[in-house]
Amino acid sequence: MKFTGTEKYVATDDLQMAVNAAISLQRPLLIKGEPGTGKTLLAEEMAAALGMKLIPWHIKSTTKAQQGLYEYDAVSRLRDSQLGDEKVNDIRNYIVKGKLWEAFEADEQVVLLIDEIDKADIEFPNDLLLELDRMEFFVYETQEFVKARQRPIVVITSNNEKELPDAFLRRCFFHYISFPDHDTMQDIVDVHFPGLQQEIVRDALEVFFDVRKVPGLKKKPSTSELIDWLKLLMADELSAKLLQEKDSSTALPPLYGALVKNEQDVHLLQKLAFMARRRG
Amino acid sequence: MLIDFFLEVRRAKVPASLREFLDLLEALRNRLAFADMEEFYYLSRLCLVKDERHFDKFDRAFKAYFEGIENLDDLMEQLIPDDWLRAEFEKHLSEEDKAKIDSLGGLEELIETFKKRMEEQNERHAGGNKWIGTGGTSPFGANGYNPEGFRIGQKNGRHGRAVKVWEKRAFKDLDDSLTLGIRNVKVALRRLRKFARQGAADQLDMDDTIRSTARNAGYLDLKMVPERHNAVKVLIFFDVGGSMDPHIRVCEELFSAARLEFKHMEYFYFHNFIYESVWTNNIRRMNEATSTWDILHKYSPDYKVIFVGDATMAPYEISHPGGSIEHWNEESGATWFQRVHDHFRKVVWLNPLPESYWGTGGSLGMTRQLVNDQMYPLTIEGLEGAMRQLSK
Predict the structure, then answer these.
(1) Mean pLDDT of all residues in chain A?
(2) So what's the pLDDT on residue A213?
(3) What is the ipTM of this complex?
(4) Which of A5, A82, B294, B353 has its CA 20 to 30 A from that of A148?
(5) What residues of chain B, 33 to 92, have a C-beta less than 8 Å from chain A?
(6) SS3 content of chain B, % helix, strand, coil (to 5)
(7) Rounded CA gap, A118 and B347, in Å?
């Protein structure tokens, strides 16, 4: 059972190591990182990749640790007692299972996501120490002992709004998702929007040359606008290195690759280049 | 695509995340901006900036990046080798040549052939019919072309260009590293809120009442709670006089905002650095001083302590007994500061001087070290950082 990222999720080597270590050593994995670096998504993708069910527990400022275990719904019981419902005699009917219980009692191993743990009260992590460590807890109302059939894989995310207690941290593996570097970002973009750049470039060319109409377009771009636009879209590829190489034979193919998909595109591009040259 | 642009925006300290960047790409996929820089500017700002404080930084980053792009060697020069476009070849291409190119078929072959040709000839080779036919046809393709007829639009040259939206920097004033007004200060201080219920229980707690009534098998059991209020307790020490004079206005603003925001706020004055006594009335400072020991004994460690001062003085005023410029101090300022720092759990220092002046040496460096580097500039951004630290 090894996690290597998924079609939709680019996992860097250090992240893969963290995930795999957490899985094999059965420790909760605490994920921190800048907003938007895919902390929550990680758990979803892990579950998908490992073929397990995901049980998400989204923490709010009002969430109590007890709610993750179970809640005793006294109000329903009161109402039922006044309606004379039979159910009222068995307190079990009013014990509402929490996410942790759900995860403990699953037949197959699941991924349990405790999302944004730092949103909760400062004592929240401490209240879950034993439960996460031993994967068991006691229900006082029914004098029942709940123990995990399969230890769930626990993923915990934090936005670092509050510091977490040391005792809690000691029990977790910790990984910080750093902001992706240029190459990783390229991978991420490719995974989410494959071929987007070529699409846009081709659209721009086709609109410019009236090959095709794009609905909702206010006006046809002028040549200089189009060239600016292409530059913007292509700036990443026109790296300094490429620009230094004045030898066009090496510069050309990669640019073509980024810009065009078929011969028609080549024609359009050459036409544009020609026009730009004529005007200049 | 646009990754460098995104990184540039982040380098300008606009807190844009990856998800917002993907949103921008999604928007581009839906063609919300298309071949129009102004549209793109609005769209990218919409996607990447979530607070008007950052508009100005974004504008600057956008400008820098856009200029960088404009200064790129002409894209077209890069794309198409010079000779492809030479009119003599364009004019003289025959139908045969065109047919030949079509017969080459497909982009792959086209590029391959092109590369081969480039390798074959290192010097320019005008005339031969083998040469460069590949590219030459395309520029005038099906539309037919007239050398004179192609001047479309006027060139919007780099020089006469009108001022771009992002160059106007209309949002300069909202940049949080610059201004500080009472309202802004209050908003920043509000971060330091910790609601608690203390005092007499005089409000009905609905939830608890229902719960306990239910547990009580239906017999009403009223539960009361005290009112919620901001329970944060704050001690502020202001540096007054001397080098602090230019910062009076901003300190006043901070003071009045803090006064309104915190129920439990105590303030004291000191001069340059904290020693064995501080005072609350600046005029009668000599006869109505409060002993620093008294403060340590009176206020519990959960008071949040804020020092406001420029920490600019002679280093011996901090490090040496007798260093104070106003009186003879038995113990050094550092010792006193350490005592305060040890007693209270959370201590920060707000400095009205811009962060770039701080450096690591001299009295400023010493103070930063004493306060465990929890020194923040007296800007909205700095204040927010300080409040976040205090509330952690």
Answers:
(1) 81
(2) 65
(3) 0.73
(4) A5
(5) 34-37, 40, 65-66, 68-70, 72-76, 78-82, 84-85, 90
(6) 50, 15, 40
(7) 22
